[in-house]
Amino acid sequence: MENIVIRLKEQGCRLTPQRRAVIKQVYESTEPLTVTSIWHSVREAYPNISLDTVYRNVSVLVELGVLIPIKSTGKEGVRYELAAADHHHHHVVCVKCGQAVCIDFCPVNQHLLELLHGHGYELVRHTVELFGICADCRLTVKE
């Protein structure tokens, strides 16, 4: 977690106790979290923290490239995970339950970069969103 703190300080970002708590919750989680779930966890240490404060902190952390939003069509909405500097990946998300699974593949290749460059673009970041129905939800549909 300290490498994240150092990176944020290098970018001139203030590290309030609430922001540290948000980072800690996502850092310690084994799965992507919604803003609401982050808020519930952070409230244990900071009972007066508002949901709006957590939303603002998450938004700043996304802008700074610390968190990655994983969009979902399920009831959970957007979930967030830490952006790993050494592990770029994408996700497939279940449209029924919202479960997200990491896909260790990136379709952005040299050909695509050259195509973008030909249109005058330099790629600065990207996300690939894949949606499907997970095995558990397929089973419940068939039953």
Automatic annotation (TrEMBL):
Belongs to the Fur family. It is found in: Cytoplasm. GO terms for molecular function: DNA-binding transcription factor activity; transcription cis-regulatory region binding; zinc ion binding. It comes from Propionispora vibrioides. Zn(2+) binds at residues 94, 97, 134, 137. SUPFAM superfamilies: Winged helix' DNA-binding domain. CDD domains: Fur_like. The keyword Membrane does not apply. Its main location: cytoplasm. GO terms for biological process: negative regulation of DNA-templated transcription; regulation of secondary metabolite biosynthetic process. This is Zinc uptake regulator, Fur family. Fe cation binds at residues 88, 126. The lineage of its organism: Bacteria, Bacillati, Bacillota, Negativicutes, Selenomonadales. GO terms for cellular component: cytoplasm. It comes from the Bacteria. Its cofactor is Zn(2+); Mn(2+); Fe(2+). PANTHER family: FERRIC UPTAKE REGULATION PROTEIN, ZINC UPTAKE REGULATION PROTEIN. InterPro entries: FUR, Fur_C, WH-like_DNA-bd_sf, WH_DNA-bd_sf. Keywords: Cytoplasm, DNA-binding, Iron, Metal-binding, Repressor, Transcription, Transcription regulation, Zinc. It holds the Pfam family FUR. Binds 1 zinc ion per subunit.
